[in-house]
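Lab meeting, item 3. Inverse folding demo.
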């Protein structure tokens, strides 16, 4: 673990999570498609078939390379810095909380739909993104092909707006519904674990 912490510059959990997400997703997409089918989150069948573990495992598979790349890029852009700031234990708690809350939100909305199924790490990653913004409200990031820095809060708003639109369109198996609950989970986590950071961010964002 010490070696991994050194290689990741103090963010071993983020490094392990990113590697697990990428490798598991690639395996499901190109080597063992059954891996995806077995780990889809199916809210209607969660209790009926006792598929409770899919609340976690569905967050390590993705629908296609574009879905994986966007989630992986967002995680890479924010998770490593956040872990160094709040510590590895806090980061693991945040990620787990985001994953479970976003899965629970999906279950509440779709628990009466036998045919609904979804996948993706988006809920947990949105928890990381919004927790990062609360801790660093003035931060910006660079995106490929865009020469100007994008303020992190603007990136987050655009991400959520897209999620709402995509959820209404209900396209594919990407769990867009988890984005909103994941984002809320990130804000709630910081408010509970570091209320001073939450108050500072609120004051700065509110002007």
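The presenter then showed the designed sequence:
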């Amino acid at each position: 673990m010490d070696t991994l912490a050194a290689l990741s510059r103090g963010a071993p959990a983020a490094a392990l999570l990113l590697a697990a997400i990428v490798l598991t997703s690639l395996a499901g997409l190109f080597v063992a498609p059954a891996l995806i089918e077995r780990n889809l989150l199916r809210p209607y069948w969660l209790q009926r078939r006792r598929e409770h573990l899919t609340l976690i495992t569905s967050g390590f598979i993705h629908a296609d390379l574009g879905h994986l790349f966007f989630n992986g890029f967002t995680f890479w852009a924010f998770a490593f810095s956040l872990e160094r700031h709040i510590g590895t234990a806090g980061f693991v708690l945040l990620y787990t909380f985001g994953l479970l809350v976003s899965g629970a939100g999906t279950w509440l909305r779709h628990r009466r739909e036998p045919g609904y199924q979804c996948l993706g790490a988006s809920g947990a990653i949105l928890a990381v993104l919004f927790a990062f913004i609360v801790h660093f409200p003035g931060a910006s990031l660079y995106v490929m092909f865009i020469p100007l820095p994008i303020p992190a809060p603007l990136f987050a708003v655009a991400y959520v707006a897209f999620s709402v639109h995509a959820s209404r369109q209900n396209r594919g198996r990407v769990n867009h519904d988890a984005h909103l609950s994941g984002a809320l989970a990130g804000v709630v986590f910081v408010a509970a674990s570091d209320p001073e950071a939450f108050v500072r961010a609120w004051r700065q964002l509110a002007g």
